[in-house]
Amino acid sequence: MSNCHPAFSNGTLTVPRLVTVEGGFPAFSVGSEICAQIVESEAFDYLDAPVERVTGADVPTPVRSSTQPDRCSYCPI
Known about the structure:
Layout: E1 19-21, H1 30-39, E2 52-54
Parallel strand pairs: 1-2
């Protein structure tokens, strides 16, 4: 826990709840990594409630069709 936020210093938790907020996608985000680190550590025992994540919607990333190649570069035809 030496590299965690100062709220976790000296093995004491100063705030018994954790909420991460970010505007990106929920999967593979910084907030998900923070949640994983806390849940896997002894700091999780000091929380009064589950970790809450507030993120953008989990939707496909929009892609312009003009940026896509006409065919796969691996296809010989």
